[in-house]
Fold:
Amino acid sequence: MIKYSEKKVLIVEDFTEFARAVGTMLRNMEITFCDTVTSGEAAIQACREKKYDIILSDYNLGSQKDGQQVLEELISFKLIKPSCVFIMLTAEKAAAMVMGALEYQPDSYLTKPFNSQTLKLRMDRAIEKKQTLKPITDKIRHAKWHDAYQLCDKIMEQSPKYRSSCLQLKFDALKGAKQFDKAFKLVSEIANERITPWVLKCMGSLHYENKELEKSERVFIEMTETFPMVIEGYDWLAKIQRLLEKPVDAQKTLQRAVERSPKPLKRQKHLGQLAEQNNDFDTMTHAYRQAVKYGQHSAFSGAEEYVKLVKSIGKVLQQNTTEDRKKLISEAKSLFLQIEHKFKQEPCTQFRAAVAHADFSYIIKDQKSIDKYIKNASAFFDKIEEHIGVNESIEIAQSLKNLGLNQLAECVIEEAVEQYFDDPQFIKKASKITSNKHLISNAKKANTLNNKAVKYFKHSDYSSAIDFFIEASEIAPNNVNIALNHAQALLKRFQLKKEYPQDLYDSENILAEITRLPLTDPRYQRYSELLRLNQLMLQKIE
Amino acid sequence: MQKNTDDVFNMILASTVHDMKNSLGMLGESLKSIFERIEVSAIDKKATELFGIVQYETSRVNNSLMQLLALYKLENEQLPFNPSYYNLYDFLHEQKLLHLPLLDAKKIQCEIIVDEDIEGVFDESLLGTVLENIIGNAIRYTRTKISVSCTHSDHIEIEIADDGFGYPEEMIKLAGDYIHGINQSTGSTGLGLFFAHKIAEMHKHKEKVGNIKLANGGSLGGGRFIIQLP
Structure:
């Protein structure tokens, strides 16, 4: 028996009459703790303040965030506890399902209208299932793969009712443990019983892990043909086709996906990137326009789609004179205003936007604006404290060169090369922009030294590794990767021999020099982990 | 351009159906509130029965809307088909609960015969819409009870049987050609069976395809609806 009197419930429903009706149903189940909010934003806020056991959310919440976006944000920002049951209330289950990604599925869908018996049954079932599978999902969350898949067999025997869920979790555990052969055997057995979208997704993703991209592509083509409304198939297929260097096919695949499910921001951005690569600027404009539109109420929206949209509008204007120029120009101008306003606190974005604005003004031959935004750009450049991203650096430097600002372009490229010399795609693009041949050859030198050092590191020869890291950092003193590697090698050497406490002070100094790493940088986590370890070790010796 | 018009129509149709469903939901809820305001002693047998009928008719309209929307989407290759594993006992019990107010009002017994632990592969939302309609009709035409039973061997077979007068002979003979079952005088629109047939056909496994059958007799002696999914 589930004790509902102890459960905390949140109702998210913009239709107040309906929310009241659901509230009455809950009270009849002896639920006394029940909050109601009328928008997705309010739901997120409520979950920041309280930890709920059950959330009943409408899918369609008016013009703001929808129920699916609420769920995705709650999971991504860890605002709900793992045991929380999320039930999506919807007028039509199918429509809601198409819009969501498979990894962010609610525990249950409940189709409106429903009666209190059905509501209670759904809640009972969802809670019971979550509780039964909890030992497994806990282990998976903590990456204890071996324990997890052993538990799967045990729980499957005790509760045959959850056989298929246990098998799916077992697959996740085997994949997590990188036991791809066993995982493949398991999924093949299930496939013999029945081909479901899940089975095909698992097979395709295993081929991908095994770097068998052609095989993976074939599986995902089958998935999109057999289950054309399961959108995740297209996302996977496009990802594989991109890796197979078939950007045109990948674009077509994603276009089929957005026809069916246009809302997810990530999908529109991927489509925009592919269209840019394929020089299809109409599609690029359309995709980023949708990204800006659907990102309006999303916590995952950023400056990227705004800047890219302005860029693509510029390209369309350059290519085509019959288009409605006036309309496009005013759209771009309004976007620049939005960027200025929305991302006021980000000098990096403001710098990027000012350069893009000057570039755009050049396309529409507005000399006054070019001068104004070049001036703004230089001012913002001095304020930037963080590293500019790898793709952004290329974009900005290219525009600056077009505008004849070679010196500033070189500055941007120099900094980027120092940061991203280990990215061959980037180096290829950068060498086309810079006229400083010395820069690229130095980058290659630093890369070689860093690679050598990493090799020694892997063989636990930390002293040799440290020597090469020192050499590499002399060429690229601001490179975060080398600094992190260097610090890690020092910590390792200390751990191994405990001979040179100086190692700890050296690594502390190296880490202290890293001041420009934004929180959003993928390397940030490694940086803060090293910092923490360093502090711990220092405390022990002091 | 055709594509765009289709998209717009699709959107308007879907949003109108959703809006109508909301209205239906509110209708039911408001009626319930009215009932709650009336003193218990004032609610006689007739009132309870009428309440049951209103609920049944609302859910019938709702179900027909869902079927129409689904058929439209099917025609335009927009209907999601997403089969997965589901527990059949849970699934069928929920179908019964949907009809509980009417079952209670008409004092009709509903028996579910299915093994508790078996799972089947099907699209839950589509099969749910099919069964909601068939069970609703069975309740309408039965006398004292209905039974929902399910067996699972190499395929799933769900049978809904009643102790009413059974299906008319000419309807049973139509087998598979249910669109011609439209008959103004009996009130049969043909929608429910046509839809059931379409949904059964979407369920495929290897060479086998799902189907539906109508029959009379069986253990309850009335109509029998059988849906087989491979």
Summary: Chain B has two domains: 2-75, 84-229. Residues 178 and 193 of chain B are 6 Å apart (CA to CA). The first strand of chain B starts at residue 84 and ends at 87.
